[in-house]
């Protein structure tokens, strides 16, 4: 029987109203009393506010749980999407370092813990931030753009991405005829389910940023409004249903409750065990030729992994160990008619690439432009002994239709973003990282 992993995750973000901290405390205690380590995604300014409000009770209780990062300022404008939606990736990274490193420091100072995971607020799905967080050691990305129906994770942009599945405030407050056993029956058999909550929404009937930061900075910093309070009966109902859910999960043999640290270790261990041998190249080439996308057999590889494995084996016979990779910043362009290249020229073109950098949209050969997919298949041939290679026109972008939301995402005019946020680069560049995708094994 497949055990469904359950992760409890809390977006701990409301630095405007101390009442919300009571819900952090109560839920942390309930879960700890049940022997559960939950994941608290902490905003930098909220970590600072907990110290300022002298909420040592909350900070002490968080020691029993994992702490992840939820950006420096959440919805203060410009938010992460707004300030990274620029053409220059390097400038976006510089801005992230200025902002987000401050927030990470605030979380570490308040909790004594270094975050190993990150949860994006709203739909702040900036490709630049994904690479940045991974470089900072946060390899688990909780809440993502991959709509996997079975709850499987996805390796992407050098991190392991999970779904953000079901909001507890929605289930407990807004679901007609809510029944805990029907809920468990509906999620049993999945790989993983992340049950999340915004503690602010236990105490209040609206989000804190809707009254302070919706579509703009509505209030001066520090002069905030608290969202409308829920009734005492509603708050009591929430905690009753949370305890009921925990009891039901723990008594149901179809489920196992996990934590973020365990999930990170499992995902990274699986990634570290991957090795590619030269004898596997024909199988990899056949898989890519049959379906230009990630490869599941004989080893789990993204298209970028395949690209750098082929480059490696043109000069070496030793096993290739995949590592961090990057996709594109511009739409790749391929050949439009057959092209023949020598092995020496293919070697020279491959030598211009580096997995620490983004792949160029095309390469300039003696025959003109050739695309990155063209070069990938050429390198596979040379690595297997070819002296010349004749290439045929092919699609340069890999197939990512398995993840429909990635294909249609457009973040402009959404969430609490300002009207000035036009999503000129972010959604397109998320798609341009598809060469880094590989599903969870």
Task: Write a concise keyword list for the protein shown above.
alpha/beta; TIM Barrel; 2 domains; 6-stranded parallel beta sheet; globular
Task: Characterise this structure.
The protein has 441 residues and is α/β, with parallel strands linked by helices. It folds into two domains: 4-270, TIM Barrel; 275-321 and 332-391, no CATH class. It is built from 17 helices and 15 strands. Strands 1, 2, 3, 8, 9 and 10 form a six-stranded parallel sheet that branches. A five-stranded mixed sheet has the order 4-5-7-6-15. It is globular, with a radius of gyration of 24 Å.
Q: Gist?
A:
The protein is of the alpha/beta class and 441 residues long.
Indicate the radius of gyration in whole angstroms: 24 Å
> Which parts are unreliable, with pLDDT below 50 for 5 consecutive residues or more?
none
Main structural class: alpha/beta
Overall morphology: globular
How widely separated are the two ends?
Answer: 17 Å
Write the CATH fold name of the largest domain: TIM Barrel
Strand content: 5-15%
The CATH architecture designation of the largest domain is Alpha-Beta Barrel
Count of folded domains: 2
Level-1 CATH class name of the largest domain: Alpha Beta
CATH H-tier superfamily of the largest domain: Glycoside hydrolase/deacetylase
User: Mean of residue pLDDT?
Assistant: 97
Largest sheet: 6 strands, parallel
Q: Share of helix among residues? A: 25-40%
E-strand count:
15
Instruction: Give the number of helices.
Output: 17
